[in-house]
Amino acid sequence: MQERHSVLQADGTIAAGAQPRMEEEFLLEALRWMMKSRLYDTRVIALQRQGQFGVFSPGMGQEASIVGSAMALDPTRDWIVPQYRELMATVHHGLPLEIITAQYLGKIAPARIPDGVRVLPTQVSIAAQLPQATGLAWGLRLRGEDAVVMAYIGEGGSSEGDFHEALNLAGVTKSPIVFFLQNNQWAISTSRRVQSATTSFAFRAAGYGFPGVQVDGNDVMAVYDVAVAAVERARKGEGPTLIESVTYRMSFHNTTDNPSRYEDPKEHEEARKRDPIERVQKYLTGLGLWDKKRETELTEELTRENEVALQMAFAAPAPTPEDVFANVYEHPPERVVQQKAELLDGRRG
Ligand SMILES: Cc1ncc(C[n+]2csc(CCOP(=O)(O)OP(=O)(O)O)c2C)c(N)n1
Ligand SMILES: [Mg+2]
Fold this sequence. Notes:
The protein has helices at residues 24-49, 63-70, 87-92, 97-104, 129-142, 161-173, 192-195, 220-235, 265-272, 276-286, 292-315, 334-348; strands at residues 79-81, 149-154, 177-183, 186-187, 190-191, 212-216, 241-246. It is of the alpha/beta class. It folds into 2 domains: 24-318, 3-Layer(aba) Sandwich (Rossmann fold), CATH 3.40.50; 321-349, no CATH class.
């Protein structure tokens, strides 16, 4: 494993000797997506508290990981296989925000992923997405497509059998896949300290014969660097990479969780000092490319954008009881046909 990759430091300066691939205009673009993510999270948490939104896992504190990794992909040919904390990565990749929002509102038809958007559905069953991600990458290679899969997983998920099976098969088949492990220090209330005895989750790659890289996950420039290198490697046919993006979950696990019952407030305070968004803003301020006025203007613009998506999702049709039978079988078995008929009869009667 290489030493932890770092470019943009917490004080907003570039590390000595670092040569970021991300140029200023691109960094402003990254900041836009990171702020959009934070604003969306803040808004939907408020909506959930008012009973208007489903259970939601925010990406707060992890925006550099989420955005920096997605920006390394080409949405016209690459695929994202998400867990559930990478919402803005999938939106960056072309999944309309109103569609993923509709999913959280329990809408069915309006939540369908459009054809041509190379994103798999959100996966809540931990690590179950990874064997499928390896299968997808292997299949793309067999079909001669010039595509790479970025699969997301948490550090907690790396204790699951599926994680090891997927990485093993990807190594053996040299599949074009990047395993992007967000080590946010928590698996609900289980601390990273008791998750594994390893000193770095990136070491796990060695067991499967491909490189593991550790990166400062609160540094969007560094995340982008290592993600681009891993994507290039995969595209050239050199096989998978495991990236451990070391970050911190600055909010709760999801809207049902209360971290004040298990999180040391000092640890939280320390993490706040490494805020991935403030770091970029400090750096751009130093270059004369950022100030309070620009922040206010962009915040207003992004808030409006998010609001449009939310309104579209709220306006989309709600599911009907018979929708429970839809999208499961191409040819439903007799008992399912009968159950649906009984439901419709019952309603008529
Ligand atoms: C197979 C399975 N086991 C347990 C759970 C319950 N569960 C939901 S999230 C979670 C923790 C996941 O932690 P991590 O992989 O670090 O991802 P994070 O939530 O921190 O992004 C657990 C145990 C689940 N959803 N699926
Ligand atoms: Mg975690």
